[in-house]
Amino acid sequence: xxxxxxxxxxxxxxxxxxxxxxxxxxxxxxxxxxxxxxxxxxxxxxxxxxxxxxxxxxxxxxxxxxxxxxxxxxxxxxxxxxxxxxxxxxxxxxxxxxxxxxxxxxxxxxxxxxxxxxxxxxxxxxxxxxxxxxxxxxxxxxxxxxxxxxxxxxxxxxxxxxxxxxxxxxxxxxxxxxxxxxxxxxxxxxxxxxxxxxxxxxxxxxxxxxxxxxxxxxxxxxxxxxxxxxxxxxxxxxxxxxxxxxxxxxxxxxxxxxxxxxxxxxxxxxxxxxxxxxxxxxxxxxxxxxxxxxxxxxxxxxxxxxxxxxxxxxxxxxxxxxxxxxxxxxxxxxxxxxxxxxxxxxxxxxxxxxxxxxxxxxxxxxxxxx
Amino acid sequence: xxxxxxxxxxxxxxxxxxxxxxxxxxxxxxxxxxxxxxxxxxxxxxxxxxxxxxxxxxxxxxxxxxxxxxxxxxxxxxxxxxxxxxxxxxxxxxxxxxxxxxxxxxxxxxxxxxxxxxxxxxxxxxxxxxxxxxxxxxxxxxxxxxxxxxxxxxxxxxxxxxxxxxxxxxxxxxxxxxxxxxxxxxxxxxxxxxxxxxxxxxxxxxxxxxxxxxxxxxxxxxxxxxxxxxxxxxxxxxxxxxxxxxxxxxxxxxxxxxx
Lengths: 370, 259
Fold this sequence. Notes:
Chain A is mainly alpha-helical. Helices cover 68% and strands 2% of the residues of chain A. Chain A has one domain. The longest helix of chain A is centred in the last third of the chain and has 27 residues, at 257-283. Chain A is globular. The radius of gyration of chain B is 19 Å and the shape is globular. Chain B has a six-stranded mixed β-sheet with strand order 6-9-10-3-11-12, with helices on both faces. In chain B, strands 2-1-4-5 form a four-stranded antiparallel β-sheet, covered by helices on one side. A two-stranded antiparallel ribbon of chain B has the order 7-8. In chain B, α4 (119-132) packs across α5 (149-162).
């Protein structure tokens, strides 16, 4: 009896037990099931050369904004302005590319259009974050204000300068601008070339079918990688967890809680801007309605990825699995002809609820049922 | 007699018209456990908040190692070696032992903020520091939420000591714990005392607990010191009498019997 201590009561687990208890485990399982189901139901079409490209396109879009949303949620806050920020950033870039830089500063290049827009969106992210930490109001309400406000500003600006809430037929900047190609161009061409050389990736005439993935796939991978390293390995990562878990005790230990939060609101704004830049330079269009409801999808993906609604816990890799799941299901209608596209929303609703229950169980297990 | 590490002299604290502390003296010596006892509202919390830099005293002086010190923030007090372990412990249940231990003071290489944490080194230090004062956690990466109240207390104490506390203020560390865990915390206090270089201020309601570990007592009632002294100078009954805020225990018994 006496040589027993409390730590003995913590059961030593096998590697497999540890693996299935990781926060990513649930979202990996869901992703795996969805992947297999869609591959079979589409007779493999969803996983052929073009299918992979199209799926990864939307997966990356989801993934980029969900990663930003997830970091912020781990720190205990929400950003409902992501969708409107996408619309705003897209408008800003397209407008400069079409009508020139503001204040008559001359023609815009993709480079200047992007960085001026980024400066504005980062400033907006800073503003949202600062209002949240200074006022102590719920970020839900503050960012909801920006959801409406920013969308309105986007539409008004469009009509004032452009007379229409759409811009289409911009010059194809990625033809000559390397910078535009970074967002709207292609990536992983070597992979498709290799597949072609090995006898896959053929169209009906036996030529190379798909030339590469979207450039945004690289952005997604970069965003996930950087976010993963920051969250799990760096000092700031520890501050993010501490801020979301219990901000008073974090503050008592010297964690700069407010700066962490403001920085993460700027991160979500950054992710929204990348999302918009990829869209603008890929399609050479912009629309005031772009990004609508994306903030809610980003939050849903984060939750399915194992992020707790209450903050303080979660994994970026899990969110990446969540983005794959959502992207596959959102695209399923294109590969499975007999399915109704609105089943995507049914799926989102059901998976979201299941994920919240699962996450709540995880939280209770860790905190001992409190 | 050795110089006390911290000496409070004639501390007065008023909140508007309300006098929370009215001329309190307190000597805290390294290597001793100083029990601070008193009923609810006696001024214990105000006193520790003054020592930990949360409140500034209205009058009176704090001496640290014989030199007058002014604390304008908790950070000043921490820098002067006064570590406070509050009842909520300032611990995050979802985070691992190591991450809690180094929260806000991570070891890293590279730039501040974005520097990579030295996880292995931090795991080792957290484990060793907790082992020194009594518990051997098998896995420093386990979430604090899985630990018992006593273990969490140990974590908070080990953390304060590791980051340079010379005076450890423990705010009712045994309340809200089960019997066995209370004993664990008392053992921890003894182990800290044994190091010899740390003074412990042990705030409690529990007379028995203070008897078990304390070297020196200060009793507060209504903002004043009503009794103080070393353990061997105070009779057991005297302690009990003072614990009841100075009222005779027998009177209280009589009153209770009359109801």
